[in-house]
Design goal:
Blueprint (H helix, E strand, L loop, with lengths): L5 E6 L17 E2 L2 E2 H12 L4 E6 L4 H8 L8 E4 L4 H11 L6 E6 L7 H14 L1 E7 L4 E5 L2 E5 L5 E3 L3 E4 H7 L11 H7 L6 E3 L10 H17 L5
Length: 233
C-alpha cells in the first residue's frame, strides 16, 4: 500500500510568558538542543519525505534562522504566525501545497513525540480522516462551582496531545471559517465543521513544555533518550 504524503505544520508562536525567560520557550535548550530543533528533527526522523513548515512570530523569524544554524536541524520552511494559534495554523496550511494527503499539526514545544507515535497517528488518520493522540487521565479532578467544588469521574476523560493529523481536504475546509474562542486545538476546529474525531494512543512522555518545572522533566527525558542511543551518562 502506498504511503500517504504528509505535510507537517509545527506551530511555535508562543511568547514564553509562563516560562519567564527572555526568549520564547521554543528556543530554550534541552539536552543541549533547542526545543524547536528537537521537534523538527523528530518529524524528519519519522517522516523523512514530508515537507515541514514552522510557524513563528514575525519578530523571531530572523533570530531562529541565525540560531538554528548553530545546530543540526532538519530542513524546514518558515512562515509568519498570526494573532491566535488558529491563524498561525491557517498560515501553515496555506504554505503547504495541494500535493499532500494528510496534514499533521504539532506543538513546537512537544519535542518528544516518538517515531512510533507519529506513525501510529498517521495510520489512524489515513484510515479515519482524523487522528489525535490521547492518554488516560491519572490525576483526580474536581469541578469548581459557586458552592465550592465536587469530584468528577476521571474514567471517561482523556488528555489530548499533538500531533493532530487530518486528511488534507478536511483540515483545509475546517479552517475556512472565522476564529471562535472555543477553538482550543485543531480537533475542535475540525469538529466544529461537522467531522468526527478519531482517537489513538498517545504517550505520557509526549509532554508540552510550558513552565520551568516542565524543563526539569524534559531534561530527564532527553537524558534517557540519549542513553538509549548509546551515549554514556
Amino acid at each position: 500500500m502506498e504511503q500517504p504524503r504528509v505535510g507537517v505544520i509545527i506551530v511555535a508562536g508562543g511568547s514564553g510568558s509562563r516560562m519567564g525567560g527572555a526568549l520564547p520557550k521554543q528556543f530554550a535548550l534541552v539536552g543541549g538542543e533547542p526545543i524547536l530543533a528537537r521537534t523538527i528533527n523528530a518529524f524528519r526522523k519519522a517522516l523523512p519525505t514530508s515537507r515541514i513548515v514552522v510557524v513563528l512570530p514575525a519578530e523571531y523569524i530572523e533570530f531562529w534562522k541565525n540560531f538554528s544554524a548553530r545546530f543540526d536541524v532538519a530542513k524546514h520552511s518558515i512562515v509568519e504566525g498570526g494573532k491566535e494559534r488558529f491563524h498561525s495554523v491557517r498560515n501553515g496550511i496555506e504554505a503547504l501545497s495541494d500535493a499532500v494527503d494528510l496534514i499533521a499539526v504539532q506543538d513546537g514545544v512537544r519535542p518528544f513525540a516518538s517515531k512510533e507515535l507519529i506513525l501510529r497517528t498517521v495510520a489512524c488518520a489515513a484510515e479515519h480522516g482524523s487522528a489525535i493522540p490521547v492518554v488516560k487521565a491519572v490525576d483526580s479532578y474536581r469541578m469548581v462551582d459557586g458552592d465550592g467544588s465536587r469530584i468528577i469521574d476521571r474514567t471517561p476523560l482523556r488528555i489530548v496531545q499533538t500531533p493532530q493529523i487530518f486528511a488534507a481536504p478536511i483540515l483545509r475546509a475546517a479552517y475556512d471559517t472565522e476564529f471562535r474562542s472555543e477553538f482550543t486545538d485543531d480537533a475542535s476546529v475540525v469538529e466544529y465543521s461537522g467531522e468526527k474525531i478519531a482517537l489513538c494512543e498517545g504517550e505520557y512522555t509526549n509532554i508540552k513544555i510550558t513552565t520551568p518545572d516542565d524543563l526539569v522533566v524534559a531534561e530527564a527525558i532527553a537524558k534517557t533518550e540519549n542513553c538509549g542511543e548509546g551515549e554514556n551518562i
